[in-house]
Write a structure and sequence with these properties.
This protein has 501 residues and is α+β, with helices and mostly antiparallel strands. The protein contains 17 helices and 22 strands. The strands form 6 sheets. It has an 8-stranded antiparallel sheet with strand order 13-12-9-10-11-14-21-19, sandwiched between helices. A 5-stranded parallel sheet has the order 3-2-1-4-5, sandwiched between helices. A 3-stranded antiparallel sheet has the order 7-6-8, covered by helices on one side. Helix 6 packs across helix 9. The longest helix has 24 residues. About 3% of the residues have low confidence. The structure holds adenosine-5'-diphosphate. Adenosine-5'-diphosphate binds next to strand 8, strand 12 and strand 13.
Length: 501
């Protein structure tokens, strides 16, 4: 069944499209980009060996249009499709259509995507394999009376969740009986409009929870391993902003147990390729299966930094029908890695997405710093897609060193034109709660008083950046050396003087 892949259509955009194409180039595989009108001048379009326009701007008429994407794949002669994350990556119909067209889908089979994409189905299958699942229902709940009965049994607080859910949509926290009726109706209608599927179920709300997930890899020969955990408890709106590995919450024994549970969960649905098994860890050390993401995760770089593996390369090898070249005990993890997601958001205003032109962009560099970015100076963060600008990841020998490195890298990041999550990330990394390793998914409610407490910090950071830029450009113009090169040292002296004043 070995089939060498020669040309891959990357059915995605931005940083992840670029990240995938880089590995393709290293492997001597041609890359094909598809792009919307709004993305015509984005770096991933230029990087690809071939690029094809998808008419329109909205995701629905471009990156989410199965027929358009498949027809480009055929036209370009691509023998495989990499879906990245988001968009069509977890759409079983897309995987099915690709297979039907004789194109390799770089991911699991469409049946595993379908099973794991339905949270109630996933709960049934994974629960039956002996992995603990969050107490709640495995069948969709329709009417309020039934919901009241179940919630009473499970015990408040509970979560009403969309069976087809993702991105925190169709999810409602319910503290008592009075809230249940309206929350049920709200979640149902939100799920219907977001996923075209209004089915919801009820789950116990785990208190003081931490989000711990395990990266897994499985080949077509029944071999499956995990690449350790990632902790993703720093979230807003139930969505991740900062991730780290190793997690400070796991003992070696718990790590081993959860790692085995993750591999079992994947095996339960005949999983092949890279995937992530998500768990919720309670304050009392109990853990429960939450869901499985059947694709590459946004936060995969921290696993790459600590294991040395290239997950996209592994995905492609598996899709080519190769066996995994390692077993569990071969996989070693070294040091500590942290990722900060740099979103265009107003962190002082409830993390509201921001849009605009990236007028100035300077990315941090240096030992142990990795920036996965899909933009450049002059790029536009548009209303059409996710407002992520880049992912900043660092690696160092210890957690303490990694925190210091991340703070250094964040301080070097200069973005002018949109508001970003940089001040929030710096706040988290500087906080005692994060430093102690004792934090939960409630970090934002507990410590981030909606940006108020750090507005001074933010102002100072912004001021510093503007001054740095001014210093560079002014002094660059005013004082040039004999060879015409700008004198940067003069600029930083000017900056220091400004700070002293
Ligand atoms: P989605 O697929 O919409 O992202 P998830 O089921 O992955 O939803 O949950 C997203 C986040 O919501 C989790 O990381 C966690 O912070 C919170 N969450 C989900 N289920 C629970 C639960 N049962 N108890 C506590 N928090 C939860």
């Amino acid at each position: 069944m070995n089939k060498k892949i020669n040309k891959v259509l990357v059915a995605n955009r931005g940083e992840i499209a670029l990240r995938i194409m880089r590995t393709l180039r290293e492997m001597g595989i041609k890359s094909v980009a598809v792009y919307s009108a709004a993305d015509i001048s984005m770096p991933f379009v230029r990087y690809a060996d071939e690029a094809y326009a998808l008419e329109g701007n909205e995701a629905r008429e471009t990156y989410l249009d199965i027929q358009k994407v498949i027809s480009v794949a055929k036209k370009s002669g691509a023998d495989a499709i990499h879906p990245g994350y988001g968009f069509l990556s977890e759409n079983p119909d897309f995987a099915y259509e690709a297979e039907r067209a004789g194109i390799v889908f770089i991911g699991p089979g469409h049946t595993a995507i379908r099973t794991m994409g339905d949270k109630t189905e996933a709960r049934k299958i994974v629960g039956a394999s002996g992995v603990p699942i969050v107490p709640g229902t495995n069948e969709p709940v329709e009417d309020v009376q039934e919901a009241l009965r179940i919630a009473r049994e499970v015990g408040y607080p509970v979560l009403v969740k969309a069976a087809a859910g993702g991105g925190g949509k169709g999810m409602r926290l319910v503290r008592d009986e009075a809230e249940l009726g309206p929350s049920l109706a709200g979640a149902q209608s939100e799920a219907k409009s977001a996923f075209g599927d209004g089915r919801v179920f009820i789950e116990k709300y785990v208190l003081g929870p931490r989000h711990i997930e395990f990266q897994i890899l499985a080949d077509h020969f029944g071999n499956a391993v995990h690449l350790f955990e990632r902790e993703c408890s720093i979230q807003r709106r139930h969505q991740k902003v900062i991730e780290e590995t190793p997690s400070a919450a796991l003992t070696p024994a718990l790590r081993e147990e959860m790692g085995k549970a993750a591999v079992n969960a994947a095996k339960a649905c005949g999983y092949v390729n890279a995937g992530t098994v998500e768990f919720i860890l309670g304050a009392d050390g109990s853990y429960y299966f939450l869901e499985m993401n059947t694709r590459l995760q946004v936060e995969h770089p921290i696993t790459e930094l600590t294991t040395g593996l290239d997950l996209v390369r592994e995905q492609i090898r598996i899709a080519e029908g190769e066996k995994l070249t390692f077993v569990q005990r071969d996989i070693l993890r070294r040091g500590h890695a942290i990722e900060c997601r740099i979103y265009a958001e107003d962190v002082g205003n409830n993390f509201l997405p921001d849009t605009g032109l990236l007028k100035v962009l300077r990315e941090p560099v240096g030992n142990g710093v990795r920036v996965d970015s899909g933009v450049e100076e002059g790029s536009e963060i548009s209303v059409y897609y996710d407002p992520m600008i880049a992912k900043l990841s660092v690696w160092d020998t210890t957690r303490e060193n990694a925190i210091a490195k991340m703070l250094r890298a964040l301080s070097e990041y200069i973005i002018v034109g949109v508001r970003t999550t940089i001040p929030f990330c710096a706040f988290v990394l500087r906080s005692e709660a994060f430093a102690s390793g004792k934090y939960s998914t409630h970090f934002v409610e507990e410590y981030w008083k909606n940006g108020g407490s750090v507005s001074e910090g933010m102002g100072e950071d912004d001021l510093k950046k503007v001054l740095i830029l001014a210093a560079f450009s002014l002094e660059g113009k005013k004082s040039r050396g004999a060879n015409g090169a700008p004198r940067i040292e003069a600029g930083s002296r000017w900056l220091n003087k400004r700070f002293e004043e």
